Please model this.
Amino acid sequence: MYLSSIDRPTADDPSPPQHSGRRGLALVGGNVFALGTVSLVTDISAEMVTAILPAYLVLGLSFSPLAYGMIDGIYTGATAVLRLVGGYVADRIRTPKWVAGTGYAMSAVAKLGLLAAGRSAGAIGLVIAVDRAGKGLRTAPRDALITLSAPPHALGRAFGVHRAMDSVGAFLGPLAAMAVLAAAGQVLDAVLVTSFCIAALGVLILVLFVRDRHDDRPATTPVSPRDVAELLRAAPIRRLLLAACLLGFAVIGDGFVYLLLQRREDIALGWFPLLAVGTSLTYLLLAIPIGALADRIGRLPIVLAGYAALCAVYLLLFGPLHGWPLLAVALALYGFFYAATDGVLMALAGPVLPEHLRTTGIALIQTGQALAYLASSVLFGLAWQLWGPLTASRLAAAVAVLAVVATALLLINRSTTTSDTEVTA
Model:
């Protein structure tokens, strides 16, 4: 069995030399570390606010599982179009840094918007939409900058370093929120103000330390919508897009996983944010070694292993384990899922996409995944409401298995020519 040319080394993607220690990390490049620092700081800000959101909506405001599923799906999926916009604009004006910076700034301002929203559900929804719009706008340009800042054979390591730094922020965010609440006498506004200040620091770091990257095309060669359509004429890109959609449909979202764990183990609301901390800690520890392993043995097997771990998490939600063993195993597997899929999937896509359409291509794949996730989240909420959480979780596990099998059939044992992996537009 062999991997398709999507995942095989090519003349432009040679096998990496053996690096170790500082020399291996230096291969990633300073720009990746700068982008990782921006993501670290921004994630502290974001997770201070969002770590308790599922419990607040479902347990505090008594939202039904279906209502939460719709909000959770929209929370991620409704920004899909803006991912495409961000990718296309970054490729057209050839400044991915500033497109990403606009997205980071929108999310920072949204933290202040939450102060003004009060208890209005409509206003809170609007502010969250602005925050997610900022995330949608910045994601593809940021990931494209990573692919343009590291050599092709080190992309798994580069994304691993970035995602590890990002997960440090996700780990620290809930802890920072708990510390601020303790110091401010449980005043939520103090968390929001602190979150805004931290997000603003992230924007400042991006402006001062992140360097723009683009290909060497003459500036007079603009990217047109016709060029974007050319992307889908390449079989490897079509297969990657379809695989991303299938895998996105297998994900029900963090909120549902944590709610089901809280429901089963009767975890107190004050400890609820620590579920996200457990996942982030595992992600932090595994992101870099898994990224390096993906560069060594192939990125596709790592992605498939990650989604197999996700299936195991769904089964554990109503399996034989209880108490701390359940929490430890489930959160460890969930963190492994993120470490094996989040950045590695983008590293898998990077070498396949033409450099001058790299950001747009990444945005296209992320958009397909986000739209599939929106549908999955709504349908899981509906299944929970109609048939209960046990049946819904088992259905989710079955969908995850089918998605892994279908992705393997799409991307393994494909005999493609070199021209399939190179797109000219």
About this structure: The mean pLDDT is 78. DSSP finds 17 helices and no strands in the chain. The two ends are 32 Å apart (CA to CA). The chain has one domain: 28-213+224-421.
